[in-house]
Design goal:
This protein is of the alpha/beta class and 504 residues long. It folds into 3 domains: 10-187, Rossmann fold (3-Layer(aba) Sandwich), CATH 3.40.50.720; 194-280, N-(1-d-carboxylethyl)-l-norvaline Dehydrogenase, domain 2 (Orthogonal Bundle); 307-412, Transcription Regulator spoIIAA (2-Layer Sandwich). The protein has 19 helices and 15 strands. The strands form 2 sheets. The chain has an 8-stranded mixed sheet with strand order 3-2-1-4-5-6-7-8, sandwiched between helices. The protein has a 7-stranded mixed sheet with strand order 10-9-11-12-13-14-15, with helices on both faces.
C-alpha cells in the first residue's frame, strides 16, 4: 500500500495549534488541504495564520515564492463537514473527549467515501474506543504528531484493535512521504512515547517530594550528567503542568492505577493552584523579563586528593579511572574485599565512592558516598553526590574536590536510593523493555520514538544494552526493597534480558 496521492485532499478538523501544524505539514507536502472547525470563523482565522507562517518561511529563505503561492491556492477553510466529502484523509485534532470524537467520526463516516482514511491525533485516548462506534472501524488509525508538528519529525502510527493493516500501512507511508519519521504502535495507553517517558517526570517529582534536591538541581543533574536536553521540571513548565499531569493521570487510570504510573501529589497541587508553567508565568519556576533564572545547588571549590585507590571493576563508571589518572592524581589498584561487591574508589580519608545502585548510602556502616550515573563521564559537566550520615565534612569535601579536579561541577543531594540519573534511566530502560515485550512496538521504533519524540540523548533500549541488563535489574531490585510498593518491581522482560546476558 502506497502513500496517499498528492492529488487527494487532506482535511484537518480542529484548527488549534496542533490542527494548524498538521495542516501546514500536509500543505507543504503538496496536498490540497481543507480546514474545518466547529467554532464559526475559526477555520478562516487558522487559514490566515498558516498563510502568515508560509510568508515567514519565504522571508527566511526556506520556501520559494512560487511554492508559497501554490500552497496558498491549495488551502481552503470550509464551513461544514459536508464539504469534506471528497477528501482522501481526514485528521481530527479536537478536544480530548471521547464522546465528542466519537460523534465527529460517526458524522464523517456518513459523508466521506468508503476509501477515505480516518485518523485521530489523540495523545491519550484509546484509538480503539474512538473507532468503537463506527460501522467500518478498519479504516480508522491514530496519527499522533508532536508539537510543533511542522518541526518535530516523529509521528506515531497507532493501530486500534479493528484497524486494517492496509490502513495502517497507508497512514505510515503517507507520514513518511510528508518528510516525517513514522513509528508503528499498538493501541496502548500513552502509545510509545507517553508510556515509556512517564519515569522521566515521575522520578524527578518523587525526588522532589522526598526533598532529595530542589527542582533546579534535579534538572541540572539530568541535563549535565544524564545528557537530557531539558530537565523534567523545566520541560513540564514548557508543556504545561495541567497538560502533563492530565496525560500522567490518563495513563495511570488506563492501566487500572498501576503503581508504576502513579501521578504526583506535588504536581496536582501545582495544577490546583493554577501555576501551570510558562503560559501562566509561574510553575516550578517563575517567568518574566526581570525574573532571575533558578540556579542549581553547586558545591564550593574543594581541594582534590593527591591519590585514590580503585578497588575492583568500576564497570559502568570505568571511564573515571582514566579521567582521574589524566589529571595527575596517583591511582593504585586493588581487589574488593568481597568478590560480590561492586568496585569503588577509596579516598585517602577512608571514604568510599560507589556508583549509585538503588540502595541508600546509609545502608552500610562504612563512610560511603554514592555518585550518580552519567551518560558519558568524560563529557559530563556535573556530578551528583549523596553521602551517608557517617561521612564527615572533610571526607565529603575530598570527594567534591576529586570530581572538581575532573572539570565537573558538583551537586550534593540527599541520600535517596538510586539518586537522580541512575534511578531515572533504570526505570526508562525497564519501561521500554516491557513495552517491546508486550507488543507495543518493536525495539527500533521504541528507541526512535524516544530520541525524536522527546529528544532523549540515547534510545532507552540502546542505553540499557550499554549499561547491562544485569545492572538495571540489580538497581531496580534494590529500589524495590527500599520502596516495596510495586513501583520499582522489575518487569519480566528485564529479568529475561538479564538472564540472557548472564548466559551469553
Amino acid at each position: 500500500m502506497t502513500a496517499l496521492e498528492l492529488s487527494s485532499s487532506v482535511a484537518v478538523v480542529g484548527t488549534g495549534t496542533m490542527g494548524q501544524g498538521i495542516a501546514q505539514v500536509a500543505l507543504l507536502a503538496g496536498h490540497p488541504v481543507r480546514l474545518y472547525d466547529a467554532v464559526e470563523g475559526q477555520a478562516k482565522t487558522a487559514a490566515a495564520t498558516i498563510a502568515a507562517r508560509l510568508d515567514r518561511l519565504v522571508e527566511k529563505g526556506r520556501l520559494t515564492a512560487d511554492d508559497r503561492s501554490a500552497a496558498g491556492h491549495r488551502l481552503a477553510p470550509v464551513g461544514s463537514l459536508a464539504e469534506l466529502a471528497g477528501c482522501g484523509l481526514v485528521i481530527e485534532a479536537i478536544l480530548e473527549q471521547l464522546p465528542v470524537k466519537q460523534r465527529l467520526f460517526e458524522e464523517l463516516e456518513e459523508i466521506v467515501a468508503e476509501d477515505c482514511l480516518l485518523a485521530t491525533n489523540t495523545s491519550s485516548l484509546s484509538v480503539t474506543a474512538i473507532a468503537g462506534t463506527l460501522k467500518r472501524p478498519g479504516r480508522f488509525v491514530g496519527l499522533h504528531f508532536f508539537n510543533p508538528a511542522p518541526l518535530l519529525p516523529l509521528v506515531e502510527v497507532v493501530s486500534g484493535a479493528a484497524t486494517d493493516e492496509t490502513a495502517a500501512t497507508r497512514a505510515y507511508e503517507t507520514a513518511r512521504a510528508w518528510g516525517k519519521t513514522p513509528v508503528r504502535s499498538a493501541d496502548t495507553p500513552g502509545f510509545i512515547v507517553n508510556r515509556v517517558a512517564r519515569p522521566f517526570y515521575a522520578e524527578a517529582l518523587r525526588l522532589h517530594e522526598e526533598r532529595a534536591a530542589d527542582p533546579a538541581t534535579i534538572d541540572a543533574v539530568l541535563r549535565e550528567s544524564g545528557g537530557f536536553k531539558m530537565g523534567p521540571f523545566e520541560l513540564t513548565d514548557l508543556i504545561g503542568q495541567d497538560v502533563n499531569e492530565a496525560v500522567t493521570r490518563s495513563v495511570w487510570e488506563s492501566f487500572f492505577q498501576d503503581p508504576k504510573f502513579t501521578p504526583s501529589l506535588a504536581q496536582r497541587r501545582l495544577v490546583e493552584s493554577r501555576r501551570l508553567g510558562r503560559k501562566s508565568g509561574q510553575g516550578w519556576y517563575a517567568y518574566g523579563d526581570d525574573v532571575p533564572r533558578a540556579e542549581p545547588h553547586t558545591a564550593a571549590p574543594a581541594p582534590a586528593p593527591a591519590s585514590v585507590a580503585v578497588h575492583g571493576e568500576l564497570f559502568q563508571a570505568r571511564a573515571l579511572a582514566g579521567l582521574i589518572g589524566g589529571v595527575g592524581i596517583d591511582i593504585t589498584y586493588g581487589e574488593p574485599l568481597d568478590p560480590y561487591c561492586p568496585g569503588w574508589i577509596e579516598l585517602p580519608s577512608g571514604a568510599r565512592l560507589f556508583l549509585a545502585d538503588g540502595s541508600a548510602a546509609d545502608d552500610t556502616e562504612a563512610p560511603v558516598i554514592h555518585f550518580d550515573l552519567a551518560l558519558d563521564y568524560g563529557t559530563a559537566t556535573r556530578i551528583a553526590l549523596a553521602p551517608a550520615a557517617t561521612v564527615g565534612d572533610a571526607q565529603l569535601r575530598e570527594a567534591i574536590g576529586l570530581f572538581q579536579a575532573l572539570g565537573k561541577q558538583v551537586s550534593v543531594v540527599a541520600d535517596v536510593p538510586g539518586m537522580v540519573v541512575a534511578r531515572t534511566v533504570a526505570m526508562l530502560v525497564d519501561f521500554a523493555l516491557d513495552a517491546v515485550a508486550r507488543g507495543v512496538a518493536d525495539k527500533e521504533d521504541v528507541d526512535t520514538a524516544m530520541r525524536l519524540g522527546v529528544n532523549y540523548p540515547r534510545g532507552p533500549l540502546a542505553w540499557g544494552e550499554e549499561l547491562g541488563a544485569g545492572w538495571v535489574l540489580d538497581t531496580l531490585e534494590r529500589l524495590h526493597l527500599e520502596y516495596p510498593t510495586g513501583r520499582y518491581a522489575p518487569s519480566q522482560a528485564l529479568r529475561r534480558a538479564a538472564a540472557r546476558e548472564d548466559h551469553s
